[in-house]
Please model this.
Amino acid sequence: MGNAEHWESVYRTRQVDRVSWFQSHADLSLAIIRQTGIDPAQARVIDVGAGASVLVDDLLDAGYGQVTVLDIAEPALAVSRARLGERASRVDWRVGDVTTVELPEAGYDIWHDRAVFHFLTRAEDRKRYVEQVWRAVRPGGFVIVATFGPNGPLQCSDLEVCRYAPAELHGEFGSGYELIAHQTELHATPAGKSQEFVYCFCRRAA
Model:
């Protein structure tokens, strides 16, 4: 089963509010996005591997008017579009693998990823991901990536994952990205378990 088929199956067979990564609100992600200082009306934001995340709802509520949502699984995006109703027309919805999908060059001011990068267990996939970020984020733009931390799970959704300390995660992106801040979050899953996430907030070199 390929990546797309795996995630399509996940979103067809599981309730979106019962998957381990579910959040009723993406409070920390939204707070970091606001720290960029970019006017919400002007900021071009992409949420990669968004699944059925409510971050898009929170961004629209906060006045962000140029939001792109990318995921490999169309059923996940369908859930978000249905949830948003008429507001879904204000979002650029894209289906594709983040490492290969065509994105506009320098098309985004803010790149956000919560829980995609840690699924890239092959070095070549991580390299393609970083190259994609470099092309898609404008010089001086911001990159927010969250993965499982050193004490996080070894698997998620029946897939192996990589775990990162802040310095290790920043190191995957290299000197072209200035680490502005990092933060650890203990995410409470719907099943009542605790998962350690590490967020790195970076600026792409100009």
Residues 134 and 204 are 8 Å apart (CA to CA). The longest strand covers residues 137-148. The chain has a mean pLDDT of 92.
